[in-house]
């Protein structure tokens, strides 16, 4: 307890001294999310993290999340110093989409508009026509479909197939997945639903189709929180990383939030929905990076300039 308070005070002082602001994702440690809130930083989904970092006047952005979030911040504001508590925090979607193979895939389908998920490297974004996050993917693909465009989608096949089903667009999928959301099981969710028939099922679209099918609401992290907040029901089954419960509980006092099962039959697994890379962000690693000033994100300037085009398109699409 006392030690935690010391970390917190040290981090607050260092943020101020360095004119730095904390930009955190909903999946990070609640202690980090609370600090971001207290210090005028932001806690949000990946779209709003990108927007906040780009618009904030601080010289230094401390991005608590995973690598693609730091890279996105650097691409959008190359003159700012972007630091992360750890440089090891990656994402299975990013890992599963190596730039050279991806580029060859694009070359093989020159007639398609390339739409990539934000959970990718700078090099993959540089090859794209559009970058999207889960909160904006449906709207962007709808818009492209209405213009008669055929889509090449990467890397998340579950989000891609959800988008394809919802929009009816012609979508060619890359074969990638999120190791956290892929583990949610339809059987487990329907068993829970049988136990709590009144519960609303909230699902992140990185989950498999069979789970998405059971959802009352499908959406990004912020859309999931918003649904829990605005729906009148009192009980929610939530298929996304458990880090989200900090903000959800804060926004929904008195409501019961249940994490969707990830393994086996029934509601046996209640502790699996947790991203190992997001978990690398702690008060200790956060304080360390502020003290040392290392773990700086760098993006090749030429690559960054190319990646900025589809990223800026995303931000401009929904102001
Ligand atoms: P959103 O916060 O944009 O919904 O993304 C979820 C995610 O997987 C980030 O790692
Ligand atoms: Fe990547 Fe999944 Fe972790 Fe998000 S939760 S960072 S998509 S591995």
Automatic annotation (TrEMBL):
Cofactor: binding comment: Binds 1 [4Fe-4S] cluster per subunit.
One of the entry's Gene Ontology molecular-function terms is: metal ion binding
Documented EC number(s):
2.5.1.72
For the biological process aspect of GO, one term held by this record is: 'de novo' NAD+ biosynthetic process from L-aspartate
Pathway the protein contributes to = Cofactor biosynthesis; NAD(+) biosynthesis; quinolinate from iminoaspartate: step 1/1
Q: Which Gene3D superfamilies match?
A: NadA-like
Going by the entry's taxonomy, the superkingdom of the source organism is recorded as Bacteria
Q: Which UniProt keywords apply?
A: 4Fe-4S, Cytoplasm, Iron, Iron-sulfur, Metal-binding, Pyridine nucleotide biosynthesis, Transferase
Its UniProt entry gives the catalysed reaction(s) as: iminosuccinate + dihydroxyacetone phosphate = quinolinate + phosphate + 2 H2O + H(+)
Q: Which residues bind [4Fe-4S] cluster?
A: 91, 178, 275
The record's section on InterPro entries has: NadA, NadA_sf, Quinolinate_synth_A_type1
The UniProt annotation places iminosuccinate binding at 25, 46, 117-119, 134, 204-206, 221
Q: Name one Pfam family in it.
A: NadA
Q: Name one GO cellular component term.
A: cytosol
Biological role stated in the UniProt entry: Catalyzes the condensation of iminoaspartate with dihydroxyacetone phosphate to form quinolinate.
HAMAP family recorded for this chain?
NadA_type1
Protein name, entry field: Quinolinate synthase
Q: Which organism is it from?
A: Microbulbifer rhizosphaerae
């Amino acid at each position: 307890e006392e030690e935690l308070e010391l970390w917190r005070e040290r981090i607050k002082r260092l943020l101020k001294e360095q004119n730095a602001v904390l930009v955190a994702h909903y999946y990070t440690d609640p202690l980090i999310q609370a600090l971001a809130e207290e210090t005028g930083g932001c806690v949000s989904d990946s779209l709003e993290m990108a927007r906040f970092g780009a618009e904030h006047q601080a010289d230094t952005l401390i991005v608590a999340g995973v690598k693609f979030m730091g890279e996105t911040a650097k691409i959008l504001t190359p003159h700012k110093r972007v630091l992360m508590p750890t440089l090891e925090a990656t994402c299975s979607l990013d890992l599963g989409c190596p730039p050279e193979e991806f580029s060859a895939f694009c070359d093989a389908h020159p007639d398609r508009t390339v739409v990539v998920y934000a959970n990718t490297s700078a090099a993959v974004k540089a090859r794209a026509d559009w970058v999207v996050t889960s909160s904006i993917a449906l709207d962007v693909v709808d818009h492209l479909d209405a213009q008669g465009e055929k889509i090449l989608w990467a890397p998340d096949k579950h989000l891609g197939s959800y988008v394809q089903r919802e929009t009816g667009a012609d979508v060619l999928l890359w074969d990638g997945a999120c190791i956290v959301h892929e583990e949610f099981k339809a059987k487990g969710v329907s068993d829970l639903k049988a136990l709590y028939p009144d519960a609303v099922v909230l699902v992140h679209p990185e989950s498999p189709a069979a789970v998405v099918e059971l959802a009352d609401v499908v959406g990004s992290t912020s859309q999931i929180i918003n649904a829990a907040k605005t729906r009148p029901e009192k009980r929610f089954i939530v298929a996304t990383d458990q880090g989200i419960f900090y903000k959800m509980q804060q926004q929904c006092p008195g409501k019961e939030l249940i994490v969707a099962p990830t393994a086996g039959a029934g509601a046996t697994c209640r502790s699996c929905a947790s991203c190992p890379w997001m978990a690398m962000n702690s008060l200790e690693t956060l304080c360390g990076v502020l003290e040392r000033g290392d773990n700086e994100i760098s993006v090749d300037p030429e690559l960054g300039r190319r990646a900025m085009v589809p990223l800026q398109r995303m931000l401009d699409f929904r102001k």
